[in-house]
Amino acid sequence: MSTNKAKRIVIKIGSSSLTSMQGEISRRKLEKIVDEVVRLKDDGHEVLLVSSGAVAAGYRKLGCWTRPNELPEKQAAASIGQGLLIESYSDLFLSHGYIGSQILITRNDFSDENRYNNARNTINVLLERGIIPIINENDTITIDRLKFGDNDTLSAKVAGLVDADQLIILSDIDGLYDSDPRKNPDAQLLETVDEITEDIEAAAGDPGSAVGTGGMKSKIDAFKITMASGIDAFLGKAATENIVYDAVYGDATGTYFSPKPDNDNLNQKKQWIAFNSGPQGEVTIHRQAEVSIVEKKKSLHLSDIHHVDGRFSKGAVVRIKDLHGEEIGLGVVNYSSEKLQDVVNQTNNEQLDLKKVAVESGDLVCHLDIKVPVGL
């Protein structure tokens, strides 16, 4: 397979693919990824780089002889290393006539829709000007409960954010196998995947590298996001010669993840709801409402609400659940939790005239924007 069409490509490279045997950033490995990005840029493609490596670049300068395990030391190392890492990238790209820019983000930047759209607009301007955004999570200030989890997940969400044509994840393993190749010498490389099955998830196994934060499971989760969003993806070994260039043109050794052509791909709004919004509460509905919104694709109305959990405002994303507590999907509500709870309480006391409420404010609670499962 080959393509002459200019693509928008997100490349994720992990710490283990950038570090030396001593755990520090390898200049040689950094030069390799930059050279491959430059080849794509020279061909007219737009490229975003999601790069790990801040802690690895900074921990020796912090005075640590080994990579730190405690969060404050990791964050201190990242505060040193992030500057060193972006300086190295910038110098290398400038030597080829290209400009790199630094973008440090947190999960909150994605969970807030206004900040999400602002990040999208900023990155689009950079790409339109031919600049290479170099993205990483802001490890210096992010606490564990507010992290993306790893840069595999971040890269998939960035790919959705910018409507990328392809996500390339580079690792220390040359693709997805039907079982763990470190334990099974007969494991077979899966060259193409068009659906993440239970067998594939089971084969993902445990985290692999001691240097990075993500293992094969995190990569599978990332590919669930891209496939639900209609984005092609590739997993390959960073050390392989020309791996990035060949992955774009369909000639690389690794695993290609391609969504099925008939997939009901999520648009930009639904991607944000599904993968970034962070639902703020729960709405449990009556059985007849479940049939109505799932099978007949109807909307959810005031009379459909059984009970409400959590505090949320109008416009928030909530989980929609059945009476057994099973999640049906996600929706953006037209009422606050307080208002919905008042409706439930008054309905239970037979004091509320729903027709009057409908006349005064409309009785549409929300649509079923995202059905479950959405991939994660």
TrEMBL record:
Pathway: Amino-acid biosynthesis; L-proline biosynthesis; L-glutamate 5-semialdehyde from L-glutamate: step 1/2. One of its GO terms (molecular function) is glutamate 5-kinase activity. It catalyses: L-glutamate + ATP = L-glutamyl 5-phosphate + ADP. Residues 281-366 form the PUA domain. It is found in: Cytoplasm. Substrate binds at S52, D139, N151. Pfam families: AA_kinase (PF00696), PUA (PF01472). ATP binds at K12, S171, D172, T213, G214, G215, M216, K217, S218, K219. It is an enzyme of class 2 (transferase). The keyword Amino-acid biosynthesis applies. Its main location: cytoplasm. Keywords: Amino-acid biosynthesis, ATP-binding, Cytoplasm, Kinase, Nucleotide-binding, Proline biosynthesis, Transferase. Catalyzes the transfer of a phosphate group to glutamate to form L-glutamate 5-phosphate. This is Glutamate 5-kinase. It comes from Thalassobacillus hwangdonensis. The gene is proB.
